[in-house]
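Hi R.,

Here's the chain you asked about this morning:
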Amino acid sequence: MNFDVNGLFNPENRFWSFMDKIMNLCAAGVLWFLFSLPLITVGAATTALFGYTLKLARNEEGYLWKSFWHGFKENFVTSTLVWLGALVLGIFLAVDLFACQFLPVAGVLRWGVRALLASLVFVYFLTIIYLFPLIAAFRVPLKKAVKDAVVMGVGNLYVSVTVLVIYGIFGVVTWFFPILFMVWFALAAYFSSHLLYSVFMRYLPEKDENDNSEW
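And here is the predicted structure, written out as tokens:
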């Protein structure tokens, strides 16, 4: 078997291309963290991150800073409104779930309310995992973004659950190695982007002609 030494050090071979992608994802994670520091900008930073990872999933890498800044700037208002709305709704659902144990009703009815709220929380997470990638991929109004995220999340349940599992796995990794949480989130976004991209492709023909698409 011949061993090509020159091929090993070729910057375009698969190994170095993979390492370059990993390094870019690490850098993207750091950018996401830095741009999220005011907290109110978490939504815009997350959209910018997905704008880059979705390009990676399509093998259209481009320049990290240019892609990230463009996504952050162009989608700032919509992403911020989505982030604040999702935060308020998430807190509301969490408080309601906690308050269920204090309901002055029979046990069966209490468990029924818990099941209903748990279902709403599940749909909430199904929607959230599509919202920011949707905003990153398509220039759509806020109302349409939320509606499409719900439809995609519920209508592609096996993909949505897989994406949740990916985030769950990286969440466990973050528990043990919290200092690199921004890197783990960027990697989770990248792996989930492959699945989300496949879902988005199914809905492309159904987009309105007047919609402006990044794709």
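One quick note: Residues 107-137 form the longest helix (31 residues).

Cheers,
M.
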